[in-house]
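Please decode residue identities from the backbone states below.
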């Protein structure tokens, strides 16, 4: 019951993505607590499987996993060198000339990397900034130079080729390892792979890696069931009324556990075996209500994330993406690691 996280599936997904980019080293992105699944479990398992390069968003995320990984694991911090951060044992990915000069003043001789902006306009040095410090930055010996694709989950999007060309123009001849691809970029093909790839969501079973093994399953407990007559309402705001005499199960998780409130009467279902039981009425903080009328007997457990309803299906129903479903999974579940 509860949240089951299949570590072997994460390792298999990593190996499958790494095999698609055989010329590159395959890192693992474990930011946001390994997309909500527990970086303290996921990162050491990936290390044991041979992964040596890790990415987190924040220095504090890096500090949390640093003691769990041997010294030869490289932990790269995507937000770079923020003022006052302790980056001991971490590699900041420097995003601006200001970060570069701060880092080289504070941490001379320590490892760093560079991020360039190739069009996404989110993080990284723009071409003129890079041109201005390139000689000095290369002389300081960055571990690698990277950029990030905005539209890699849409293979036909013209931004992919444009960003690739911009990245080449800014980095050809640098003589430093390069990294451009996350999960989507790996699937775009070898032009995008360079020396280091950075899969995240694909490790955790999410799109755009359609061949991913599912990693997460989520089963919820039925607290009570009741008969509701045709015409009666269920839940906050009386947004749902029974069209027929119905049996309603109240289940023990809600939006505080990452069952997004947008899933209220959304078409999302809980499965009892192969029978789909719709979520009816509003998702509340700790509870959801489910129409189990069509079940002969109501089981103790109903399954919200399962092979019939993977994270990306749930995401579609909630108007979001699999990433947000994963990172919303709350800390109240009993977690089991397989
Ligand atoms: C989150 C992130 C990744 C991983 O992206 P996925 O789409 O989850 O594979 C890689 N690189 C950067 C810079 C990121 O922010």
């Amino acid at each position: 019951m509860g949240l089951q996280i299949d570590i072997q599936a994460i390792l298999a997904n990593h190996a499958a993505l790494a095999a698609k980019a055989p010329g590159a080293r395959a890192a693992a992105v474990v930011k946001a607590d390994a997309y909500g699944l527990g970086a303290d479990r996921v990162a050491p398992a990936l290390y044991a499987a041979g992964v040596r390069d890790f990415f987190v968003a924040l220095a504090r995320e890096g500090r949390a996993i640093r003691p769990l990984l041997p010294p030869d694991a490289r932990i790269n911090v995507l937000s770079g060198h923020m003022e006052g951060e302790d980056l001991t044992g971490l590699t900041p990915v420097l995003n601006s000339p200001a970060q570069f000069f701060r880092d080289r003043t504070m941490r001379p001789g320590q490892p760093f990397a560079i991020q360039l902006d190739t069009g996404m306009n989110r993080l990284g040095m723009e071409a003129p900034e890079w041109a201005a410090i390139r000689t000095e930055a290369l002389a300081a010996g960055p571990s690698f130079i990277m950029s990030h694709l905005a539209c890699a989950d849409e293979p036909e999007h013209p931004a992919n080729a444009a960003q690739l060309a911009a990245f080449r123009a800014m980095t050809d001849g640098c003589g430093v390892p390069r990294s451009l691809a996350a999960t989507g970029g790996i699937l775009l093909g070898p032009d995008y792979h360079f020396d280091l790839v950075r899969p995240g969501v694909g490790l955790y079973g999410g799109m755009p890696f359609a061949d991913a093994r599912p990693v997460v399953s989520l089963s919820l407990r039925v607290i009570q069931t009741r008969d509701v007559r045709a015409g009666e309402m269920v839940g906050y705001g009386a947004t749902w009324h029974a069209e027929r005499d119905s049996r309603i199960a109240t289940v023990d998780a809600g939006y505080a556990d990452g069952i997004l409130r947008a899933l209220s009467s959304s078409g999302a279902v809980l499965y009892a075996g192969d029978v789909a039981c719709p979520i009816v009425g509003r998702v509340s903080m700790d509870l959801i209500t489910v129409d189990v009328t069509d079940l002969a007997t109501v089981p103790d457990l109903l399954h919200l994330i399962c092979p019939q309803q993977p994270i990306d299906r749930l995401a579609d129903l909630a108007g979001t993406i699999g990433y947000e479903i994963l990172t919303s999974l709350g800390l109240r579940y009993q977690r089991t690691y397989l």
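Observation: DSSP finds ten helices and 19 strands in the chain.
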